[in-house]
Amino acid sequence: MKNILALTVFSLLFSCTDNSSLEVYDKIQRAAQINIKGYSKPDIIQMRLNGVPISVNGNTSYTEKIETQLNFVVDKGETDEIGIYNNQTGAQIAKYNISFDNALDYKDLYFFNLPGIYLQTYAVKPQVNLGRVGFEFIFPNLGEFSGASSEGVKGVLKRENGTVLAEFDHIGKKDFTAVKIYTFFSATAPVYLELYKIGANLPYTGSSIIKVTLKQDIGANMIVLQEKMENGILVVKGDIDVADYL
């Protein structure tokens, strides 16, 4: 009888224990699997997960083509950081905060780290036959200086005499357009890209059509458009050709 009474008292004491003292050690977690495809030139970079260097093919710093897969566990309520750094200077180039809620959005992480610009996109150099010219465009900082709220613009590529070479219905911030190809006609004459609002023959910003002067190279041209201010005037430049690095 005494043994039964003692067991009953022990059971009551245990059941009345404050819940705060019974911490749950198994946190809610989610597996994160991230496929990284990047490119950096000329800079040598280092990627870090929560400050720890990420090894790619046995190296903790890398340049040009960079491909690897990260596998780790994300705890609910916590954030893991993937940082990209210039290996020589230690300066942070970009960072990505991975949480329980957004881990599935980061199945693929693409980037180009080029002189003067960092692109969060994936691109493959298109095949263009001999004697032909191909153009595709991306406009990552659209609206930075113009204040334009749209996610894209229409582009019309022309010769100096006004002949239309190609039209691009949607040049956006995140992805390159499909390539448009025409026959090469001059080693010295530039071509011009006029930028309009999508679905209208109106300037995408301001009252005058913005023209981007472009050098045409035989083969693929993967142009990064950039809004800039020059002497207080908005201009759009197309000086960076990603195809030069691929």
Describe this structure in words.
With 246 residues, this protein is mainly beta. The protein has two domains: 29-119, Sandwich (Immunoglobulin-like); 132-245, Immunoglobulin-like (Sandwich). It has one helix at 2-15, and strands spanning 29-49, 52-53, 62-75, 79-86, 92-99, 108-114, 117-119, 132-138, 152-158, 164-172, 180-183, 191-196, 210-214, 219-230, 233-241. The strands form three sheets. Strands 1, 2, 3, 4, 5, 6 and 7 form a seven-stranded mixed β-sheet that branches. The chain has a four-stranded mixed β-sheet with strand order 11-8-14-15, with no helix packed on it. It has a four-stranded antiparallel β-sheet with strand order 10-9-12-13, with no helix packed on it. Strand 1 and strand 2 (52-53) form a beta hairpin. The termini are far apart.
